[in-house]
Amino acid sequence: MRILLVEDDPLLGEGLQSSLKMEGYAVDWLRDGESAWRSLRIESFDLMVLDLGLPDISGLEVLKRVRQQEIDLPVLILTARDALEDRVLGLDSGADDYLIKPFDLDELTARLRVLSRRHAGRRDPIVRHGKIELNPANRQVRVDGQKISLTRREFNLLSMLLENAGQVQTKARLQQALYGWEEDIESNTLEVYIHHLRRKLGKDLITTVRGVGYMVPEDEAVE
Length: 223
Ligand code: CA
Hints:
By secondary structure, the protein is α/β, with parallel strands linked by helices. The chain has helices at 10-22, 33-42, 59-68, 84-92, 105-119, 152-163, 171-178, 189-201; strands at residues 2-6, 26-30, 47-51, 75-79, 97-100, 127-129, 132-135, 140-143, 146-148, 169-170, 207-209, 213-215.
């Protein structure tokens, strides 16, 4: 999962970036509205956490542009305690949820999980595929009820593939979901993680789409 974090407060931004990274998200942090809008037009993200009070164009303006351009992205806005009007305006301008500062990090991550679930069209908090059960809240994976131990990046990669079962995920997209901008990507690491997942979960789970990327075929037991 790749998050765009837009927050001008350096302390809060830094704290959020490192905590969200610990939760397994790839986090790109920008400090003003214009640069957020620029990168939204050329890059793809899975979620956006957007502060409304920004130094140049407001978060509200960024949000309006996102919705006008029909960028398909769940957005959670951050607002000040006394700014009821902002929250109402934010929701009416297309925000999916909001949090009032100061907030608890656990609440933020729980809300982000709800947003991605809703975005994927799921009610069930557990992602199920055949014998696999993936729980985003405690980051556990079970196969036939047996707990499987995965590293943080293996887990993230698996959840991307399962959440998008039936659709090919390009290598670029998967790499973006695993790493933020500031991290160096070695070109073969994605292949290495895929190899580990196949070893742990069975070699038939993930299909290689030559020259494009990878996919988990749709689960035939469901739907
Ligand atoms: Ca601010």
